[in-house]
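Troubleshooting entry. Yesterday's outputs looked truncated, so today I'm pasting the complete records for two proteins to confirm everything comes through intact. If either block looks cut off, that's the bug. Protein one:
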Amino acid sequence: MSDNFNDNQEEIFSKVLRAGRRTYFFDVRETKASDYYLTITESKKFTEEDGSFYYKKHKIYIYKEDFKSFSDFLNEAMTFIFNQRGIEVISERHQKDYKPDNINSESN
């Protein structure tokens, strides 16, 4: 029996979030019992020295009975991060084309 039997299930709903080198896929699929579940896939692009590229994918499956707890924990973790580090993406400061949102630091 294949470990990837769920990958062959038909997608009922799908959304794609492109985020730089990463792409997130949110797919609703149907179980053999005709219930729905969610898969979240992160696909990240890597480039070889010869210029060719490949993708690494990580997938999680979330079933309806876990939606409430998953949502609660995700929201709690995101709230913690925003409370501790704010909403600004700190890693963007280190990119060569970074420009702060508030260019006018002086006021009259």
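Protein two, checking that the full record survives here as well:
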Amino acid sequence: MNENLLFENEKKRIEYPLSRLFCFMMFIVWQMGIIYYMGPALTIDGNVPLPISMDNTTTLIVAAYIICIILLIIIPDKFVWAARASALVALVTAFGLFMPMAPETLALLLYIQVFCCCFMIGFESATIVFLLKEKTAILHLMLCYPIGYFIIAFIQNEIAPIPFSGFRFGIVIMLIPLTYFYCRLPSENCPRFVKKSDNLIRPKKLLSGAYFLALLGALLGVIGPAVAAEIDHGVSMFYGFAGIAALILYYLYKRREMHPLKTLPFAISIGALGYLMLFMSLYVPALQIPACIFISVSMTACALLPLVILVVVKQYPSRFAVAILMSLAVVAVVVHSSMLEIFRSDLTMLYLSYLAIIIVTAIVYLLVSPFLLGVLNEKLISKETGRAVPVFSSRLSVLTERELEVADLISRGYSNRDIAKMLFISEYTVKDHTKNIYHKLDIHSRFELAAIINKK
């Protein structure tokens, strides 16, 4: 199998220090600060309502998503330049908020802020998926994101609301390091996307499973904050405890060498308990706050979506990867809006639907995770040849060289037909090798085989 494209793309990935990632983290603070502050109940200095229409804001958000998706499909390798331009426009308009102006002009500047922060969501994901090394992405998502969550929790506190003067000053403080980050981000490090001439086989099962998991994670990322917004002090608590949960996962990663994707079952289980509490709060209202806290832990499932897609891109560098992720995020918003409309007068069914979604997420994750981890951990770079070589546990020493090749590809989510094409053998031969592997290892499924290969 020709994997030169994958090796070259991996060499291009960037490793950044924490200080640079802190600048990058400002995006989520800016985004959440803008979106939440634009609520119709919030006011300038507590006196004058913001001169914007929520209908116009919604239209701008939808337009920003659609334009971003189109751009990521047509010119995905130019997203760094688009991010630079968007950050600069947002920064200039943020400075404009300090100038005395008519309400119409102020509204225009605020609309531009809304558009830019939503337009750049895809660029943030593209930066993680296409440019960052895996360890750097984990550092950003598991250590920098919690800091961002804590800042959002502070912004959303209901005890001492932030006035508009503080809001606009905060925007500038967030956008200066973010603009610096994108201006220093090398655009030439974008990966070379796969073409038909590369003869790279798509791991269809891995791709379908990963994208389905991404859809469910995006849905949880929409549901969680929506639930928190309905509870007194809920948003602040939600992001505060989400930050604590992410830091715990990072500790397990650094001290216990547990990959974040391996710790997600615990976070999802705690989140499921939270949604169960949310349902029970219909009968015991005191459970609302504990439910909000437990649900916040499942926010890590959404935060790690770019890492899941990074795994997919390392295996199959499709130009559509981030565009698909963004499209799934839009679908998640539409699905949740439809659920709210359908169950408008039936909170019991709505909360049961939330519980069902996180349970399905847990099941899908358990089925897909061994293959995701197989892509992340299956290879090391040989110092002699510079090429990747499989790393197997001692339990697999009973397998022949060909059986090891088949086992390696199975663990990375390839079907029998895919493996036959890659090894230039018949599909029947692949099935025979698979049977022999199962017999020698006393296992019965690809799931078990992937779990053995990924076991340290």
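Both blocks look complete. Sanity check on protein two: The chain is about 70% helix and 0% strand.
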